[in-house]
Design a protein that fits this description.
TIGR03118 family protein, Methylamine Dehydrogenase, Chain H, globular, mainly beta, APMV_L690
């Protein structure tokens, strides 16, 4: 969304635009007014200006597995079609599926970034290919059936207002909220699945009209007045939505005058909702949030000696699209600090979109790897890889070298 892409149609181009950059967080409950929130942000920024971060945040390494271009990224694989790598989801075995928005594909990968099966095309408003996929979720239920009667195993949403599904046999358009279908034109930037009242629902972040679109298991649209945070400043819209423990975390970005997200210092909020749309609380406000999109709960084993630190129980990582930082919060929203490399400098990923850990059911991947996807070079190109301890990264590198010899 940062720059207009020359290889996209005029309709697609109208869905994509420019962003900018900056850096510095705090969190609060939703029962506090905005003046109190602002005071907490300023106090937190002052106290963290010369912060000494916990040792467990340090000495992490980034491993780049796939890039759409060769060069400084030194990825293990160069795949020209891997452009603007956005949403990611895992199947039960741990294979990551990564959407590439600019090429309308979803790549099905191994833990090391190789093709598990060929990439699948994502439908557009007018064809079976050419979509602009952003969010993606894995579906292990028997709901969300395709016209064939088989349940979709993966569901996609896109900047073109399309929700589609894939099952063995191909991808199918399921919901059309594009201008081609008589609607104002949804811009879906994130997707989640959750259970409410014993039933499965889909939730799509509709950035264009500032709301979460709700769909039942038959893709019938539900109430559009839910998911409201009364303390959210004017001008913010849902940028992504994620299910963590059957609580829905909505990440908000500021909408610019041109209708596209702005980046910059403190431009972001995160609120938590029940699957029925009821607000639970504000999780994080301003501060180091910078057009946040990625969010993940930290599993045991990601941080060294994590059992020693009570702050790490159910801790949350939030990834900023705006500046590429990945920041750690306690379960109740207290800011801890950014992930740091072996030089104790923040790990920074240009055009960062997704951050995700493999599911506990995974059998073919290291569960402590934090995978990421990004739209590097102002979203012209794509990057996929993972973050892990320095020791684990060196071991993986040695194994790869030995395999190639």
């Amino acid at each position: 969304m940062r720059k207009l892409m020359p290889n996209l149609s005029k309709t697609a181009v109208s869905k994509i635009a420019a962003f900018s950059i900056a850096f510095t967080v705090v969190s609060s409950g939703c029962d506090k007014n905005l003046d109190e929130l602002d005071k907490e942000v300023k106090k937190s920024e002052t106290s963290l200006s010369n912060a000494t971060y916990p040792d467990y945040l340090k000495k992490l390494s980034r491993v780049n597995l796939i890039s759409s271009i060769a060069g400084d990224y030194k990825a293990k694989r160069v795949e020209p079609k891997f452009q603007n790598a956005w949403g990611m989801a895992f199947n039960a075995g741990g294979n990551p599926w990564v959407n590439t928005t600019n090429t309308g594909l979803s790549f099905i990968l191994t833990a090391e970034g190789e093709d598990a099966i060929p990439a699948v095309p994502v439908p557009s408003p007018t064809a079976a290919t050419g979509g602009l996929p952003t969010g993606i979720v894995f579906n292990a239920t028997t709901d969300f059936k395709l016209p064939s009667g088989n349940p979709a195993r993966f569901l996609f949403c896109g900047l073109d207002g399309i929700i589609s599904g894939w099952a063995p046999g191909g991808s199918v358009k399921l919901v059309d909220r594009s201008t081609n279908n008589g609607y104002k034109g949804a811009v879906y930037t994130g997707l989640a699945k959750a259970v409410a009242g014993g039933k499965n629902f889909l939730y799509a972040a509709n950035f264009s009209i500032n709301k979460i679109d709700l769909f039942d298991a038959a893709f019938k649209q539900g109430k559009t007045t839910l998911f409201k945070d009364p303390y959210l400043p004017a001008g913010y819209a849902p940028f992504n939505i994620r299910n963590l423990g059957n609580k829905l975390y909505v990440l908000y970005a500021k909408k610019g005058k041109d209708g596209f997200p702005e980046t910059g210092k403190g431009k972001g909020y995160v609120s938590i909702y029940e699957p029925n749309g009821k607000l639970i609380k504000r999780f994080a406000s301003g501060g180091t949030l910078n057009a946040p999109w990625g969010i993940a709960r930290v599993p045991k084993g990601f941080f060294k000696d994590d059992a020693k630190y009570s702050d790490l129980k159910d801790a949350i990582l939030v990834g900023n699209f705006g500046d590429g930082y990945i920041n750690l919060y306690t379960a109740d929203g207290k800011y801890v600090g950014p992930l740091l490399n072996h030089d104790e400098k923040p790990i920074q990923i240009d055009g960062l979109w997704e951050i995700a850990f493999p599911p506990r059911t995974a059998t073919n991947v290291d569960l402590s790897r934090l995978y990421f996807s990004a739209g590097i070079n102002q979203e012209k190109d794509g990057l996929f890889g993972y973050i892990t301890s320095k020791e684990a990264a060196l071991a993986a590198s040695s194994a790869t070298t030995a395999k190639s010899e």
